Amino acid sequence: MGLTEKEKALLEFCLKANVDANGITDEEFQKLKDLGSTDQEIVEAIECMTLCSGFNSYADALGIGNDAWLDD
Fold first, then answer.
1. What are the CA-CA distances from residue 9 to residues 28, 69, 71 (Å)?
2. CA 35/CA 24 separation, integer angstroms
3. What is the mean pLDDT of each run of 10 residues along the chain (72 residues)?
């Protein structure tokens, strides 16, 4: 089962926000709204992205590597 256009747009938005949060434009935000995303959905998507990014930074700072099963 694939992603909907709305889900793809949210994912692309979050990927960009993770790399260049200040580079998000009003047009990109409006695209999400035009595809039916609510403010709550957009905030939740960004929150999930920043939470995962923060966990990754935390693990990297502590030198925590992948579990062995992920390296297979």
1. 9, 31, 30
2. 17
3. 93 94 95 97 95 91 86 72
- Separation CA 60–CA 65 (nearest Å): 8
Closest CA to 24 of 45, 1, 55, 51: 45
- What are the helix and strand counts (H, E) for the chain? 3, 0
pTM of structure: 0.78
Domain ranges of the chain: 5-63
pLDDT at residue 68 in the model: 82
How many CA atoms lie less than 13 Å away from 51 in the CB half-sphere?
A: 6
